[in-house]
Amino acid sequence: MGDIRQSLLPRDVLSAAKELLYHLDIYICNLVQSGRQPPLVDSKTLELVEEFILHAPKDRNAPVRKMSALQELQLLEIMCSCFQEQSRDAVRQLIFSTLFNLQGNQADESRMMLLGKLVSMAVAVGRVPILECAATWFQRTHGVYCVRLAQVLVDDYCSMVPGSGPTLHNIHSMSPRFCCQFITAVTTLYDLSSEELTPPLELLQMIVLWIQEDPRLVLITFLNTPLSGNQPLSCLDVTPLGGLVRWCIKAPLAYRRNEKQVRTNGSSESETDAGPLFSALHLSVLQVFMLLPNILSEKGLYGHLALLQLDSVAALTSDLARLLEQTDEHTHTCADAHALSQLALDRLAQALQVAMASRALLCSREDLRAICSRLPHNNLLQLVLSGPVMYYNNIHTPPLAYSPHTAHSPIASHTTLPTLPTHTPLVSHPASHTQYHTQPFMTGVQFPFRPSH
């Protein structure tokens, strides 16, 4: 394609970009048709993309070609049509990677800006092929850039334009793969370490609804990706489970801290607003963990692949210890500070127990006690750290609908729902323990247990 450069130079920026996209489509169709594996785009083609679509100057003395806002909008519409009309997924994916795979050069900034605008438009007008290509891009790209793309969508649909959230909400039905990657990226972005890094309430509501409607949504990337070990550290996690667990556990203390920091201007999203949402999210995450034994067994990875990494749990407990220390220092300012602290510790205990029982977290009891050593005493956490954790086929999944009163603790009794598919218990348990029918998560504890009153 290098020989078309001279024909593109006299054209205006929009016409040149449109013409290059046309030739790029033909070139990549022929490349895929040739059967060459892997199909590699030559360097001259990449240079044309940088010069005539990303407008990176070929040399320092060359004039910078820029598009007006209207021309850029027209280019985005042309690109949407290009991907929509191309029927072959392999061709679409290769065109997308040619345009947006990061090359480690100055044009990468232009790539990211154009990518954010294109994906945002694809969400708005329902261009599924672009969302599918973007889902693949998420899997192959450094997490720093994945987070940047997620931030663009949050800004566009949850911050800048009030009432535009329902448009973003539809991505879970348009492209579940993209939705799963988006959830993973935003849970990486918002770590609740500050007010700015706390998820907007509208985003939180969307994620809760997505997972309630389909708990397997957060496992789609994992289910559709051949895996034999851990993902590269630079990439996003293969599921958003670690980030969602972090949200649920840190939320009671993080929201109370943020509320105190901004109380003077009265602009805080209060814990009373977000609390029930995080409770519902916590129950849904536990439900996802309980789906994993059969799924991991089917893929031959049961006991061999940790979807919840021990180092991320260690980082979470370290953050939680700091938040609890800050809460203790200011206990007199919040009457329910102790209750919020215990809620966070309860959620940690519940997540650890179910994750270990489902073999999503692979670690020894000694490792777990070591990373939790800085945490204050909590009855439920002490039971988890002391006794064996087993998975049982008679554990009922908690209801997806939530109540501010019952959602905080899945230990409480719930209306019986259909059981999960039968799974052979890892360890047989004495029938005498069935007397504790109101403590389903504690069944199988090997030492006397007396509920506190």
UniProtKB/TrEMBL annotation:
Pfam families: INTS15 (PF14964). It comes from the Eukaryota. This is Integrator complex subunit 15. It comes from Nothobranchius furzeri (Turquoise killifish). The gene is INTS15.
